[in-house]
Recover the amino acids of this structure.
């Protein structure tokens, strides 16, 4: 029986595994732990890492909270739903080096007191400089975990990520995308047990997809100009999170714990007026990849990393 | 006769005066000029200053655009309105020194093809460290310009600024406020001519209120720790602008020129997880002032600056 307690427990286990894996790769910093209570019921464990060898600022947040259903959710649930329960793991990692991509992952479960329930989640990668082989490797990891459950998942969830991780006012994607899915409900073809297994497996794909890329890139030297480009790309990340990200907006609307919601923001970010990269520069090349519908899986033949 | 052309022309003159005044105070950098066209009709003159003696990044934007009335404006206008005209001047100045406050000003005029029309605007100051005398001086300037037109303006528009320049998810104001007003329409007590004079006068109060503070503070030395505090406060500024600022949201929703809309963002900003200033530090003292309903005008007896 898939209870909300069992889901929350498994999500917390995934949080632990991911923190351990990131600490080992970083080699210096360890995650701190802040336990907090939600103003209505429940709470979370926010784990933040700063000033490591590799990671400048990163957070792995677990939460399980209950509350009054916010007004803007009413059209998503049964008419007689009044309260919600939500649990999830949310990760954003901002490395020091512009050679190591920013990564984000989220898995979540939502239910109401009227019997509505669904899973959601996603992983997406934001390289400061796009490396085609690594982008292809990353998407192959996403495809692999999807294909274990349903051949339709990867194409659907990859397209969903392209649409979701999109900075409309810039007409560019946040990075090279990945997968995104929401409102995954049990139906004739899929039990809740299977959906739970899929979402947990997405959580466990995080380290498999990210650590090889970190490991391959973390010692590559970089220039001050490359660092400046990273700060600008982080500015775009801030724009996405504050303007479009649903988790952030949901947190702001439901008076969630603000430090846990905004731990996704980088330590340093930058904005220049009307900055346009030089013609045929590495920066311009990266921008050219920040669009929807790039078929990353078939882009590179060699997906061996490192 | 107050035509939209006359209003736009006067607003452009105010833009010019302000750019000249800021250049003289900065002593090094000059404003560049980007002329641009709106995708429907009209356009703007975006003037940006960077890397001066005092100003790290600042913008003074004039625009006069026409377009289809966006959906979210429909409840503000006559039922048969289909198109809008909007003109305004928007300013944000980010100085290098944490001793020199960030400032924002906006004056604007809006009309529809169904005969609706109103003025709006505001000026607010965001010191990185609150100086009570200077805060009091600044508010006295706001009160003076308001009192010339209507004794009810300052109390009303000061309270409106407290409510508007408020970062709800942080439960703190953006700075020490100032004045904010919107939907100022001609009525029995006030002609359009008078409202236009008031709004223009608000525009011309910008330099009178800001330059004495810049001049008094620009050569005060500061420490790296004070600079870091500035970067954090700028992070809050970014949060306000991307999450709450109506002008920014309006621009994003109506596909405005993105570089002009987001020129309000600082060159560098920073976020730390759960940063809490030391007890009885200057930073804690500043935070204690970032709340609504501070009676700044009567706070200091001496409002002489410099």
């Amino acid at each position: 029986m898939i209870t909300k307690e069992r889901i929350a427990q498994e999500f917390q286990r995934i949080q632990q595994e991911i923190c351990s894996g990131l600490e080992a790769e970083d080699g210096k910093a360890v995650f701190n732990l802040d336990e907090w209570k939600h103003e209505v019921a429940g709470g979370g464990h926010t784990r933040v890492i700063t000033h490591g060898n590799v990671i400048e600022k990163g957070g792995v947040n677990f939460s399980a909270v209950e509350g009054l259903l916010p007004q803007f959710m009413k059209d998503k649930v049964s008419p007689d739903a009044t309260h919600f329960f939500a649990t999830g793991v949310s990760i954003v990692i901002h490395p020091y080096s512009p050679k190591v991509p920013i990564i984000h992952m989220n898995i979540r479960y939502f239910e109401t007191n009227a019997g509505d329930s669904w899973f959601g989640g996603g992983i997406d990668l934001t390289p400061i400089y796009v490396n085609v082989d690594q982008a292809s490797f990353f998407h192959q990891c996403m495809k692999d975990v999807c294909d274990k459950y349903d051949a339709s998942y990867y194409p659907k969830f990859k397209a969903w990520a392209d649409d979701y991780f999109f900075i409309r006012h810039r007409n560019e994607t946040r990075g090279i995308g990945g997968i995104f899915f929401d409102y995954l409900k049990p139906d004739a073809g899929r039990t809740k047990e299977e959906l739970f297994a899929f979402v947990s497996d997405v959580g466990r794909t995080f380290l498999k997809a990210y650590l090889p890329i970190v490991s391959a890139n973390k010692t590559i030297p970089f220039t001050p100009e490359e660092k400046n480009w990273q700060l600008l790309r982080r500015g775009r990340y801030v724009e996405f999170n504050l303007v479009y990200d649903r988790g952030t907006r949901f947190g702001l609307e439901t008076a969630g714990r603000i430090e846990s919601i905004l731990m996704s923001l980088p330590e340093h970010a930058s904005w220049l007026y009307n900055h346009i990269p030089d013609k045929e520069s590495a920066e311009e090349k990266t921008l050219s990849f920040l669009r929807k519908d790039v078929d990353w899986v078939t882009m590179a033949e060699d997906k061996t990393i490192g």
